[in-house]
C-alpha cells in the first residue's frame, strides 16, 4: 500500500521571535527598539500574520495526510521523502532555501505578508492552501519547472541552488583558480578575483541581475523556466600570471564551467546559505552547470 502524502510546512523564525530570544521579554524588546527610533508593534503584527498563516495552512491539510514542520535553520538536517508536498509559508527567499534539499517534490508557496513580499515564488494566500494541496497530488497538475544550478566537486560533493551558486574566498581575501569550459583539453585561464557567480532565471531578479547591470552585459537574462545559466567573475585582477579574458558567459543544457582551485581554501554556497557550504582546497576541481533536478512550483 502506498503511503499517504505528507505535507511539510517550511517556515522561518520571525523577527519578533528573534527579538524575544535576544532580549527575553516583550517589554525589553520594545524598549530596545524604541531607543533606536522603532516600534515593536509592526514587528508584532507581522509575527501574528505569520502565525495565523501557518495555522490556516495546517488546518487545510487533508485529515488523511501526514504532516510535519521544519524551520529554515534545520533544513539541512531534515529528510524529505518522495511523497512529500512541500508548503513554504513565508517569503520568496524561503522557497529558494528549501529548493536545494528537494528532488522533484511539488512545492506550494504561501505568502504571509502580501504587499511586503514580491510574491515571485510565494504566489498564493493561506485561503488557497486546501485547493493547492489537492492540485499538487493530482495527475497532470499545473506546475512551473524552474531551472536550478548545480556544483559538483571532484570528490563527489554536490550543491544545488534555485537562484545562484557562488564560489569565493571565505573572508575578504582573493580566490585563485583556473577557469574554463568543461570540455576535454579546452584551454583554461588562471585568475585572481573575489569570486564567481553562476545564476538561473529565477536568480535573474537578484544578485545575478545586479552583476549583469553593472557590466552592461550584452547577454540576455534567462527566464525562470529557461534551460540557460549566466555566469560572471567578480572583480577579476589582471597580473603577469592572472588574466581577465574569461569573465562572463552562458551555459546551456549539457554545458559546464570548470574551475580548479589554486588557493588554500574556497567556499561554494547557494542562495545565501553560507552555513551549508562546500569547502575546496588546492588542486580540487568543481563543475557548474544546469541541474537535472528542477523545482516543481505549483501554480
TrEMBL record:
Cross-referenced Gene3D superfamilies: Probable inorganic polyphosphate/atp-NAD kinase, domain 1 (3.40.50.10330), Probable inorganic polyphosphate/atp-NAD kinase, domain 2 (2.60.200.30)
Record-linked InterPro entries: ATP-NAD_kinase_N (IPR017438), ATP-NAD_kinase_PpnK-typ_C (IPR017437), NAD/diacylglycerol_kinase_sf (IPR016064)
Superkingdom of source: Bacteria
Name assigned to this protein: ATP-NAD kinase
Organism: Streptomyces brevispora
Amino acid at each position: 500500500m502506498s503511503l499517504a502524502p505528507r505535507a511539510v510546512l517550511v517556515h522561518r523564525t520571525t523577527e519578533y521571535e528573534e527579538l524575544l530570544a535576544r532580549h527575553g521579554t516583550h517589554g525589553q524588546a520594545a524598549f530596545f527598539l524604541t531607543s533606536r527610533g522603532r516600534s515593536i508593534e509592526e514587528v508584532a503584527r507581522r509575527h501574528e500574520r505569520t502565525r495565523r498563516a501557518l495555522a490556516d495552512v495546517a488546518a487545510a491539510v487533508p485529515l488523511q495526510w501526514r504532516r510535519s514542520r521544519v524551520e529554515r535553520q534545520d533544513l539541512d538536517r531534515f529528510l524529505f521523502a518522495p511523497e512529500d508536498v512541500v508548503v513554504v509559508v513565508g517569503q520568496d527567499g524561503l522557497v529558494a532555501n528549501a529548493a536545494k534539499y528537494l528532488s522533484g517534490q511539488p512545492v506550494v508557496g504561501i505568502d504571509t505578508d502580501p504587499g511586503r513580499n514580491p510574491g515571485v515564488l510565494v504566489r498564493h494566500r493561506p485561503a488557497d492552501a486546501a485547493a493547492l494541496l489537492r492540485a499538487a497530488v493530482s495527475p497532470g497538475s499545473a506546475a512551473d519547472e524552474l531551472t536550478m544550478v548545480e556544483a559538483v566537486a571532484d570528490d563527489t560533493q554536490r550543491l544545488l541552488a534555485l537562484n545562484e551558486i557562488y564560489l569565493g574566498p571565505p573572508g575578504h581575501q582573493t580566490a585563485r583558480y583556473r577557469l574554463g569550459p568543461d570540455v576535454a583539453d579546452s584551454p583554461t585561464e588562471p585568475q585572481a578575483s573575489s569570486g564567481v557567480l553562476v545564476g538561473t532565471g529565477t536568480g535573474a531578479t537578484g544578485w545575478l541581475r545586479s552583476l549583469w547591470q553593472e557590466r552592461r552585459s550584452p547577454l540576455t537574462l534567462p527566464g525562470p523556466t529557461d534551460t540557460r545559466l549566466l555566469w560572471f567573475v567578480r572583480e577579476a585582477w589582471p597580473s603577469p600570471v592572472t588574466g581577465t579574458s574569461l569573465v562572463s558567459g552562458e551555459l546551456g543544457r549539457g554545458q559546464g564551467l570548470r574551475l580548479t582551485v589554486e588557493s588554500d581554501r574556497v567556499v561554494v554556497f547557494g542562495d545565501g546559505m553560507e552555513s551549508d557550504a562546500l569547502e575546496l582546497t588546492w588542486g580540487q576541481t568543481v563543475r557548474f552547470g544546469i541541474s537535472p533536478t528542477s523545482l516543481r512550483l505549483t501554480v
